[in-house]
Amino acid sequence: MRSLIFAAAASLAALSAPALAETTEYRVLMGDRDIGHFTVTREGEDASVVYDYKQNGRGPTIAETLKLDPQGAPLDWKITGRTTFGNAVEETFRRTARGVDWQDTTGPGTIMGTDAPRYYASQNGSPMDLALLAKALLADADHTFEIAPGGTATLTERDRRSVEGEGGPREIVTYELSGLSLSPTYITLDGEGNLFALPSPGFDIILAGYESADEELRNLSEKLEADHLARLQAEGAHRYGGPVRVRNVRVFDPVKLAMSEPMDVVFAGERISEVLPAGSQATEGETIVDGVGGSLVPGLYEMHGHLGPQAAMLNVLAGVTSLRDMGNDNEALAKLIERIDAGEVAGPRVTRSGFIEGKSEFSAAHGRLAHSEQEAIEHVRWYAARGFWQAKLYNSMNPDWAPAVVSEAHRLGLRVAGHVPAFSSADAMIEAGFDEITHVNQLMLGWVLNPGEDTRTLFRFKAMQRFPELDLDSPKVRHTLDMMVARGSAHEPTVAIHELGLTALDGKPNPGSIDYIDHMPVSEQRQMKQALFGTDSAEERAAYVAAYAKILDTLREMHKRGILLIPGTDLGGAFNLHRELEIFTQIGMTPAEVLARDTLEMAKYLGEDQSLGSIEPGKYADFFLVPGDPVKDIKAIKTIAMVVKGGLVYFPTETYRKIGIAPFVDPPKVTAPKIIAPN
After folding, report:
1. 484: closest CA among 568, 567, 425, 541?
2. What's residue 677's pLDDT?
3. Which of 33, 459, 497, 667 is deepest in the core (most CB within 10 A)?
4. How far is CA 214 from CA 186, 195, 495, in A?
């Protein structure tokens, strides 16, 4: 699969050149909604592509022109348009007798020689590259070869079936296409090797006229992805028989805000049994892990996730053992939680938020859609009956419904968080009873918007260019912050995604990726070297950068006032959560305070502190081991040697090697218990 921010999908139609222009259309489906199209027109060896879909007021708009050789490999390729968040796309690829060259947002690239790769994985293009590549791999004897700009693609058959549609019955085959990114893509081809669909659990691109096959193909892709992750779990999750003694570690204490003296930590099953001074006597049958004087830190909390199976695994490997999901496909999330709890796949403990959206042309696709205040209240009751922790209200909900919806949620014991609905303000939602405002731009936009301006589109990002002119001592700002203090309202700023959107530049590693980009596959590195929010001038980018500085000033003021700031990324967590915590040290918190905030304090916030949040006897064995001291330097949490979640032990290096990430640190030495021979 491609990056968490710029995900795409799918493939192309017949690659044998028709005599006349021939157009093949695919529909882009998300859940039960048709949100766009992918259209390919072929005339001889020339092809043109239009790829356009919109979800929640945003999505890519891409146009491509290609010239292909007689075998269907690209000779000349131009890609233009805008990414999901509006960054300009000007991408090219060319192949000659001398080799191949390309240009994308990271800059130019070249591979010289007659044996240079013939196929190219685009950075921001449509699924055209996957279509061309999959058909060529199918024809290759080994079904594997190198591609530009780097990596080796491999095609493996996973499923065969027949489907019905307007064009009659079709025999289709679904393949696993690996080597392009951290996880495989699942692509469905017809009997001639042409694209039929590119399904994923919540998103599909499928040949027009065969939309009735969408659900079964999405279910298939969900199973194939789960099988892939289950194989990684079987190879990478270690459950030792008997107690495990982690020797010679300094334990972070979130109450004392300090590291302990050298200790030994023992867990048996899924809970911690002992925390003792280092050098304690082991008992028969124990497994010993040598901590070598490193730091043992309670498992972290990602407080703004939209969890999928791949992200679930990556979070655990990054020491994130608990996650608050802020809105999802409810059925898909329930299945994923079942698999995590059963130990079939790796993943954090999940606290669910019930997503409620109003009906509009910009409505988000997930959660439950409300057409009236009463229907929104019924949705709250539905979530409460199923054990959700809170309700999350979204952009298109009528703000006039908020007081009644919040009142019902509170009556049923649910908290309420969310975006500020369009044409309203954070002040109004705080007065309506919101317990938490989500995203710092949602909080601050009320200070700069004019009446009637619509925040359901990309305007909610562009309007941040007005932030630099804000006076944080002005009455309107003081009024909002005073209300939050008086009412105990919390704020989840998701500051890392704002840093990415406002400051990332084409051709340079984004600030949050600097410490790990060199460990990532080429495809991931390309995504980390481009802007997120598009700009049309240097002045516009300067306004965004100044807006980010004002955001940090605002968060510093909120922290000084004692407003609870909650760490969450909306970027998938994992490495991005490490960056979120690092930024928290820039707004007035020490590394120890940040670690306490994202461990014991978040456990208390969610009502889980009796079992989680600190390393104490009786609590779940959720913690991770790093060689350095994160109280001195928060960046130490980025180099993880071991993670334990509920007694399951992971050595991230083992799994990282399998998915294309270069290791950060060697695993600790593990000594199995001695087997005592019977007399």
Report:
1. 425
2. 54
3. 497
4. 13, 14, 36
| Eight-state DSSP code of residue 59 | -
Sorting pLDDT into bands at 50, 70 and 90, what band is 16?
A: very low
How far apart, in whole angstroms, are the C-alpha atoms of residue 219 and residue 230?
A: 16
pLDDT for residue 366: 81
Cα–Cα distance measured from residue 435 to residue 522, given in angstroms and rounded to the nearest whole number: 42
> Residue 486: is it exposed, middle or buried by C-beta count within 10 angstroms (0-12/13-18/19+)?
exposed
Please tell me the distance from the alpha carbon of residue 428 to that of residue 249, in angstroms, as a whole number.
49
Q: Residue 488 burial by CB count (10 A; 0-12/13-18/19+): exposed, middle or buried?
A: exposed
DSSP β-ladder status, 22-30 and 203-207: antiparallel
Cα-based distances in Å from 490 to 380, 396, 415, 502, 588:
21, 22, 11, 24, 17
Instruction: Give 280's Cβ-side CA count (13 Å radius).
Output: 21
Residue from 128, 125, 85 nearest 104 by CA: 125
Containing 319, the helix (H) or strand (E) segment is none
Contact 134, 123 (CB under 8 A): no
pTM beyond 0.85: the answer is yes
Phi, psi angles (nearest 5°) of residue 73: -85, 145
In degrees, to the nearest 5, what angle opens at C-alpha 132 toward C-alphas 130 and 135? 100
- Per the DSSP assignment, residues forming a β-bridge with 77 are 66, 93
Q: Exposed, middle or buried, 383 (CB in 10 Å: 0-12/13-18/19+)?
A: buried
Residue 353 CA to its chain's centroid (Å): 17
Per-residue tokens: 117: 């790769």
Give the per-residue pLDDT at 676. Answer: 55
Residue type, 601: E
Tracing tokens 């700023």 back to the chain, one arrives at 493
pLDDT tens digits for 40-54?
Answer: 999 999 999 999 999
* pLDDT band, residue 7 (cuts 50/70/90): very low
On the question of pLDDT at 8 being above 90, the answer is no
Would you put residue 399 in left (φ > 0), alpha (ψ -120 to 50) or beta?
alpha
- In the structure, what pLDDT confidence band is assigned to residue 679 with cuts at 50, 70 and 90? low
Answer yes or no: are the C-beta atoms of 600 and 614 closer than 8 Å: yes
Domain boundaries, the chain: 22-235
The answer, yes or no, to whether residue 5 has pLDDT greater than 60, is no
- CA 433-437-443 angle, 5° bins: 115
Nearest C-alpha neighbor of 250 from the set 615, 653, 640 = 615
What is the torsional sign of CA 597, 599, 600, 603?
A: positive
- What is the mean pLDDT of the segment spanning 481-504? 98
* Burial of 115 per CB tally in 10 Å (0-12, 13-18, 19+): exposed
Torsion of CA 439, 84, 534, 122, to 10 degrees: 130
- For 546, the token pair is 């100044």
List the structure tokens of 417.
């968080």
CA distances from 459 to 309, 445, 483, 499 (A): 31, 10, 26, 17
Strand bridging mode 237-238 / 203-207: unpaired
Half-sphere exposure for 516 (CA within 13 Å, toward CB): 24
Nearest to 321 by CA among 511, 564, 573, 562: 573
Which of the 8 DSSP states describes residue 599?
I
N-terminal to C-terminal alpha carbon distance within the chain: 56
Closest residue by Cα to residue 128 from 84, 77, 54:
77
The DSSP-derived string for 269-281 is TTEEEEEEETTPP
Helices (H), 147-276: 214-236
> 111, 98 in Cβ contact below 8 A?
no
Whether 254 and 614 have beta carbons less than 8 Å apart is answered as yes
Span 171-190, mean pLDDT? 96
pLDDT in tens, 549-571: 999 999 999 999 999 999 999 99
